[in-house]
Every structure is written in structure tokens, then in C-alpha cells.
Amino acid sequence: MSDQSHPTDITREISRRRTFAIISHPDAGKTTLTERILRAGGAIQMAGNVRAKGERRRTRSDWMGIERDRGISVVTSVMTFNYGGCVFNLLDTPGHEDFSEDTYRTLTAVDCAVMVIDAAKGIEARTRKLFEICRLRDIPIVTFINKMDREAQDCFALLDEISSTLALDVSPATWPVGRAAKFIGTYDIRTKKLHTKEPLPEGDPRRVELEEECALAEGVLPAFDKDSFDEGHLTPVFFGSAMKEIGVTDLLDALVAYGPPPRAQQTETREVRADEEKVTALIFKIQANMDPNHRDRMAFARVCSGRLTRGMKLKHVRINKQFALHTPQFFFAQDRQLVEEAFGGDVVGIPNHGTLRIGDTLTEGEDLRFTGVPYFAPEILRRVRLDDAMKAKKLRQALVELAEEGVVQLFRPQDGAPPIVGVVGTLQLDVLQSRLGAEYNVPVGFDSTPFNLARWVTGDKTALEDFASLNRTAMADDVDGDPVFLASSSFMMSRAAEQNPKLNFHDIKQIGLAGE
Ligand code: G4P
């Protein structure tokens, strides 16, 4: 993205990267805000282009049929655009809680999150959960209170609710001018500038209200504090209406001014700073068959440090092999483009045929493994029922591919029984069924299993072998071949743990840390 003839200053390039995600409860306006942001960034000419319901995406992929039918956003994607001298990577997260694992992994790849709140509803269940994930990772949060063009709760009440429910300091960055149908813009508290769609004459009741409220806000609420924001303790709050395009540039300008540049990332052995010379990258998402005309498989990598260039050969640490980056790609709202160079913070797509998996690390030679990309023990376990026995081999292959992609988790019973799939939410089963049918032509159904819990088992080798042979029908291997114990109830699980003190039963598997 810069002139090839000049050597590029990594530090300068890194400092203008902004990689963020938008989190919200469904219907708060995430899709609309995404559109408006992309439009402000010149990435799309016309609003409506990124909508899951939109015509353009209908033909893109078969599994989007599910999004269309249910009006939800299932697919996580990334969009790169320029604004205010910065390169933004906007990562989309599925709003529905059934895809929380996908969301969690996406949040491992961002430096900042924009939390969208519906001004009439305040903090909702899903906002809170997503916020908690961000807090676990100390991700700085910018708050956008949306739908101010409608009847909304009192601003102070909203700020108070955010502060008390999330235990977070709130610092209003802007204040709304007018409310509901009379909402015409925002007032920037720091620069003291009005951004309104129409003039606001002296004596206008909205001006009087604004002056009174701002005086109160400045008196009782904390001023913006960059350190506190960077540590995730304070959120700057913006008011607006994504639909009416009010407050959107306030938000983007703030991300340019103080949105955090790429953070350091933890590996098993050391922390990797974004401005290090050598390239490192973490695969946090795999998406297959994005284009039904080409059986492609795209790994999404967050460049964690250095300057990545096309054609570069990187070390694929898990399998200890060289991996050539022939066609890394940037994703824009409407198309893709080959990456000539990318820097720490950027998210690039790397086409591959299954060599790259979620959690993989690429480096210029160092044996590093990024941590923090988890698998969660699924809460729903189903046996896959295949009506056409001729397709058993195809099903096995398809399940492995889809499990590597993170659509579901796959458990192969050690006694040779048919495969079991595990999911956090039942919508994942719908996605699996629909993709098996549409992309692999393998129609399946699901049967219940006697199991309701799964735990990864690690520990003393002999103890593990003894345990596995005693519990053959309840042991399975996950997609990486790591052993998993399946139990019918938490009582059975606790009993197994009590009776086997040399073994550990884990409900989260950190990729790259299996067996520890
Ligand atoms: P989501 O991705 O968070 O689920 O929300 P989305 O943007 O799809 O918005 C949910 C609904 O809220 C949409 O209405 C959208 O038009 C509306 N909306 C979003 N931002 C604003 C806003 O600032 N003001 C107002 N008044 N409405 C807003 P819908 O009727 O469900 O869909 P559509 O018919 O508009 O497509």
C-alpha cells in the first residue's frame, strides 16, 4: 500500500494501522454502521452493499442461504479501507450467540472494538457477553450509542447504565444535538465544535439543552484518559444514528486520533511487538468455498509483526515446513486485491488447500506459537447420520475440512462408531447440514448421543491409556488427534476426574498448547 521504490518505515506503517471489530446485540445497528463506515472510507459507493440481506451477496455462497432465511449474519469477514491517513481493517463478527466461538477467535485478532448500543434499549444480553470477552483480552472499547434519531433513553441514564453494568468509566466524546426526529448532529466535547446537518441558531431550545447537559456532563463524568482507554478501563462514548449518517465520522476520526495501533501478541515463549522487523502472522479464521465457482479455502491471517510481501516464504511452525505466499489478498467491501505488502495489524487472506489451520503461526524462521486462540468444549453433541452409505468417505473428508474451518468440532469415537459433532449453539448444526448438502453433496441428519459434555484429557501417559481402554465407548479423538472424554452428565464428569487424579479434564483447549 505504499510506494515500492522507497524503503518503508515499519514503525510509521504500523502506527497508522487500525484493526477493529464491531460488537453489538442483534438489531442494534452493526450492519448499518458497517455500511456507513465503509462508505465514509470510500470503500463502497452505495449503502446497502454489505447487508447480509442484499442482492449482491446472495449469489456469493450457498450457506448464506441461512443468513438470508433467518436474517442473521453468520459469516465473519474482513474489510480493509483507508480513512484519515490510516489503514483500517474492519473484522465482522457474527451477532448470533450460537457463533460465539467464531466471534471469540475474531476478537483475538483485533486491537480495539466498537460497541454499538441501541439508544432505546441500552445494554442488552449479547452486548454484555461480547464486552466480557473483550475485557478478558483487555481490548479497548469505543462506544457508539446508535438510533438517536428515535425515541431514546435519557443520555445520562444510558451512560450510567454502561458504567454500572460493565464496571467501566464512561467519558462522552460527543453529545447529541436534539433528540428523536429533531436529532440533527453532534457536539464534540473536546474540540467544542458542532457537527450538525443544519444551523443551530442562538436561542434554539436544542442549543439551550445542549449547553446545560454538556456543563453537567463535564462536571460529573470523567474526561478522556488515553492510558485508561488503552487498558480497557474507560470507554469514550459517541452518540449518533448510523441510518442518518450522524456521528459516524466522529467515530472514525477518534479511531484515527487515538484508536490503538497494533498491539503486541503473546506466544508460548515471548511477546511479539508489532514493530519487529521480521514477519510473524497468526491464522485466526478459515473460510472455505467463499466462491461456489472455485473450491477455495481462505485462511485469514493477522500479520502480528514485520512487513509481509507477496512471494515471501514463511515457516509454517506447526508442520515445520516452508510456506510460500504466492497470492495473499486484501479484502474490500466489493472485491479482493493481491497484497504487495502488509504490515503488523493488517489482516490478509491466504488461499491454501488445507495446510493452514486455525491457531497456526507463520514466521521467518523462529519457532514461535501464538497463544490465545481457544476451542471451547461444546455443549451439544450429535451423531452424524448418513443415509447414503456410499458417501461415508466423502463425509469423513468433509467433516474434517469443516471442523478445521471451525464450523463445528469433530470427535471420532475411538471404538470406531460414526463421528460425533460438537457445537456451542444449534445454529451451527444448521450451517453444517446446509454446507454438507450444498458444497459436498452429502445430505445428513443428526441423532442424539448419550453424551452431553466433552472434556480434553491430558496427563500421565499410562494413566491416560488405562483410562481410555476402560472407557472405550466414551473416548474420542478431536480433529488434531487429541483425546476427548465424553460424559452423559457433569456428575459423571466430576466422578471421572475424582477417580483419575493423574489426569486433567479441560473445558478449553488453547490451540498450540494441547497436551500441557
Ligand atoms: P444488526 O446488524 O446489529 O443486527 O442491525 P442492523 O444494522 O441490521 O439494523 C437493525 C435495524 O435497525 C434495521 O431495521 C436498521 O435499518 C435499523 N437501524 C440501524 N441503525 C439505525 C438508526 O440509526 N436509526 C434507526 N431509526 N434505525 C436504525 P430493519 O427494519 O430491521 O431493517 P431494514 O428494513 O431497515 O433493512
UniProtKB/TrEMBL annotation:
**Entry binding sites for GTP:** 24-31, 92-96, 146-149
Q: What is its main location?
A: cytoplasm
**Pfam families, per this entry?**
EF-G_D2 (PF22042), GTP_EFTU (PF00009), RF3_C (PF16658)
Where in or outside the cell it occurs: the entry states:
Cytoplasm
Q: What does the UniProt record say this protein does? A: Increases the formation of ribosomal termination complexes and stimulates activities of RF-1 and RF-2. It binds guanine nucleotides and has strong preference for UGA stop codons. It may interact directly with the ribosome. The stimulation of RF-1 and RF-2 is significantly reduced by GTP and GDP, but not by GMP.
Q: What is this protein called?
A: Peptide chain release factor 3
Gene3D superfamilies (UniProt xref): P-loop containing nucleotide triphosphate hydrolases (3.40.50.300), Peptide chain release factor 3, domain III (3.30.70.3280)
Taxonomically, the superkingdom here is: Bacteria
